[in-house]
Design a protein that fits this description.
- The protein has 204 residues and is an all-alpha fold.
- The protein has eight helices and no strands.
Length: 204
């Protein structure tokens, strides 16, 4: 098997995507707290990554195209479940597991055309949610318990994925969500550094 520069970069980005949320999980386990996390964001991320995994599987794509997204989906769901657990919200945690089971069943049964339609409808939802998260951080002058390592890995991965997708001649509707995520990821990462600097100044 021959490996060119783009292939090697693709594998590096896949590894980064697969481990991106591990620092966030470690932070929650260490602090035993889910305070300051935008759980709506993680709910949407959970559904989107499950949707993309289903799309890849039903389209007959190679495992290299969907394994990373599946691993990300498991990590995002773990973060959400841990946060609910440490926030002492047993009812919401039970509903979370029921919702997960329900939409996995629906995605397994839904035809490919339906899944593509839902994918096209998600862009404005992501725009509103991510924009709301940025504004919430601005209001609170804090990014809460978000892991800087996770934000940095995601930012680098999305930037790399945009580059490799453009070089591969991917269609615009495939690249658009990544550009949107990269833009908001840049803003949120900038907020993380800025508010962390403010906290450092106050403690001096």
């Amino acid at each position: 098997m021959e490996f060119d520069g783009m292939t090697i970069l693709g594998y590096i980005l896949a590894i980064m995507g697969s481990v991106a949320f591990i620092p966030q999980i470690q932070m929650i386990l260490k602090s035993k707290s889910g305070e300051g996390l935008d759980l709506v964001m993680f709910s949407i991320a959970d559904f989107v990554t499950a949707l993309v995994t289903s799309l890849c599987l039903k389209s007959g794509m190679d495992i290299s195209n969907w394994l990373e997204v599946l691993i990300t989906n498991i990590q995002v769901f773990t973060i959400h479940a841990l946060a609910r657990y440490y926030l002492n919200q047993p009812r919401q945690l039970s509903l979370l597991f029921l919702a997960k089971l329900l939409y996995i069943t629906l995605l397994a049964a839904a035809p490919l055309t339906w899944i593509k339609f839902v994918m096209n409808c998600l862009l404005p939802v992501v725009l509103i949610e991510r924009g709301g998260a940025v504004y919430k951080h601005y209001q609170n002058k804090s990014t809460g318990q978000l892991s800087g390592a996770t934000l940095g890995l995601q930012w680098t991965q999305f930037g790399g994925r945009i580059f490799t997708s453009v070089m591969a001649g991917a269609e615009g509707d495939f690249i658009a969500p990544m550009v949107l995520n990269f833009f908001f990821g840049t803003v949120i990462l900038g907020q993380w550094f800025w508010y962390r600097r403010d906290k450092g100044e106050k403690t001096e």
